[in-house]
Amino acid sequence: MKKLINDVDDVLAESLDGFAAAHADIVSLGAERKFVQRRSLKPGKVALISGGGSGHEPLHAGFVGHGMLDAACPGQVFTSPTPDQMLAAAEAVDGGAGTLFIVKNYSGDMMNFQMAAEMLTRDNATVIVNDDVAVENSTYTTGRRGVAGTLVVEKVVGAAAERGDGLAALKALGDSVNKATASMGVALTSCTVPAAGKATFQIGADEMEMGVGIHGEPGRRRVRLGSADDIAGELVGSILKDLSMARGQEVLLFVNGFGGTPTLELYLVVTAALKVLRGSGIKAVRFLTGSYVTSLEMAGCSISVTAVDSSVLSLWDAPVHTAALRWGV
Amino acid sequence: MKKLINDVDDVLAESLDGFAAAHADIVSLGAERKFVQRRSLKPGKVALISGGGSGHEPLHAGFVGHGMLDAACPGQVFTSPTPDQMLAAAEAVDGGAGTLFIVKNYSGDMMNFQMAAEMLTRDNATVIVNDDVAVENSTYTTGRRGVAGTLVVEKVVGAAAERGDGLAALKALGDSVNKATASMGVALTSCTVPAAGKATFQIGADEMEMGVGIHGEPGRRRVRLGSADDIAGELVGSILKDLSMARGQEVLLFVNGFGGTPTLELYLVVTAALKVLRGSGIKAVRFLTGSYVTSLEMAGCSISVTAVDSSVLSLWDAPVHTAALRWGV
Q: Does residue B10 fall inside a structural domain?
């Protein structure tokens, strides 16, 4: 295992310390590193809390700040955070207007966030993200997995929370953005969880995993490596089938690297994805390209498409100030 | 070779097309894809032009925009752009106040930028970046290599150009920031140039290349993989020896991933680097963490340190609006 680490037991703690030091103007670290919280809280605002296993950075801590999350709870690598972390975060960032949890649909996260929601004495609601169209049910999932589309939900709902929307409206908006978002990914290589010390899966030198999950879970099938155009054809094709949009629909196109993919290739995939979208009369009006929802050092990418209207667009465009996404401020 | 590409001959063109489509609000592509230029030029401003081989994305095209570069000339992967590209860029973005070239110190780039500078009929000057303290002379270099510190030079000089500084002042500022910046990197794996189709260098499963260049050039030595603390100790130690700063000096700390390094690990390296800086009484007052000056999918990182004063700090903090760096706007 080749990693820039010290002891495998200290990976998360030492990474969080670096993150908090580097972004001390935006975030602070909760006691015992249970959560990362927004430094300047806004009283009267619904608190947005997300979290999940680590290894997907900058998701979620990189999205804590003005216009996005109030707190993120980092579990160990590819392991759900505990209800204890979520409760501590909810206490710390409460603004008196309720708490909205944004949870990726994995059994462990669902169970722990649900437990936290039940123990929390104040108003709360949960948005479940399940944007991955690759497979129904999976290694850690009942139903579809929550993947890169989580970023889109967090950005749009975060902007609505910042402008003062109430808990019920935010829950409805989050559900709606989740429903308007579909994603699918492909892996060229595996990742290696530090504590495991070996590759999560084996894959041949000329193979790819089509429909892979963000923990290296199996996708639809293992096939011979295809061209970027063929890959984009299948990923975007599956997404369009799921969203079944009318011609002329405007969308956000998000090409996401899994951590080991050169930026040079991600932009090439943008070109490939645009060909497929244009062929279906779908118009990409916003773009996000980069490694935002990663699987440690896995090579490959996912494509996410969100159908947008002017209201969602203006929330996407609204100012955001986090470690990983920043504009308008 | 596992890459998200179509034909190896089309990699750069298809990637540039995706980049231009995704960032059409910030940049446009020159004829024959010779350069990427800032969409809204500012008359009366010194034009800042950089460029170099591709494969280091987001460097340089990702830094074109308000407060940074006016144009970037992309060569083929790890290959200098031609004088023809630089001249075309200089014509396209001329603001009537002269042209400043920012060039990484590699023999090919130096020769081609010098040729362009000589052919250009208007006032121009060149800032040569050579921040890599690992080795004197290298595979493609006479003298020290220009690496991640190039970003710092481009940001600081870009902000000064935006506020209206003249050509001579910008040249002096660029030289001064280059001198105040030192970098060194380590590679855990090789990268693969698409046209070559195989790894640039071979490296054992328990080895690292200490002092590697951003094209996979040899560094100081090939050694057994060390801990993050040991690595940061050597990288920051070499940097501090080069900069020889007084205790109490304020610096910008830039931890840069080479393209195949998880963000989780980059922040852990921030923690490790801070220990070394604090041990020497050096105070990191600004941070940049991410994969900004890459070597395709190489795993590893570089650390750059820039000694700053209040004047350089305010230029670093000034608004910037590019594909890869954005704040204050």
A: no
**Helical (H) or strand (E) element with B84:** helix B83-93
Domain boundary among B152, B180, B208: B180
Tell me how far apart the 2 most distant CA atoms of chain A are, in Å: 54
Q: Do B2 and A229 touch (CB under 8 A)?
A: no
Question: Do A91 and A153 sit in the same domain of this protein?
Answer: yes
CB contact under 8 A, A57 and B274: no
Q: What whole-number distance in Å separates Cα of residue B27 and Cα of residue B35? A: 10
Q: Do B259 and A259 touch (CB under 8 A)?
A: no
Which tens digit of pLDDT belongs to each residue from B196-220? 999 999 999 999 999 999 999 999 9
Burial class (CB in 10 A: 0-12, 13-18, 19+), B206: exposed
Pick the catalytic residue: A23, A60, A66, A215? A215
Query: Tens digits of per-residue pLDDT, A83-134?
Result: 999 999 999 999 999 999 999 999 999 999 999 999 999 999 999 999 999 9
Question: Active-site residue A56, yes or no?
Answer: yes
Does A56 share its domain with A162?
Answer: yes
User: Which pair of structure tokens corresponds to residue A144?
Assistant: 């579809």
User: Which of the residues A23, A56, A60, A66 is marked catalytic?
Assistant: A56
Residue B269 zone, left/alpha/beta (φ > 0; ψ -120 to 50; rest) = alpha
Domain limits for position A131: 20-180
Nearest chain A Cα to B229, which residue?
A6
Nearest to B6 among A228, A253, A261 (CB): A228
Q: How many beta-carbon contacts under 8 Å exist across A and B? A: 188
Please tell me the distance in Å from A98's CA to the nearest CA on chain B.
Answer: 30
The number of distinct structural domains making up chain A is: 2
Instruction: Assign residue A240 the CATH number of its domain.
Output: 3.30.1180.20
ipTM metric: 0.98
A10 domain residue, yes or no: no
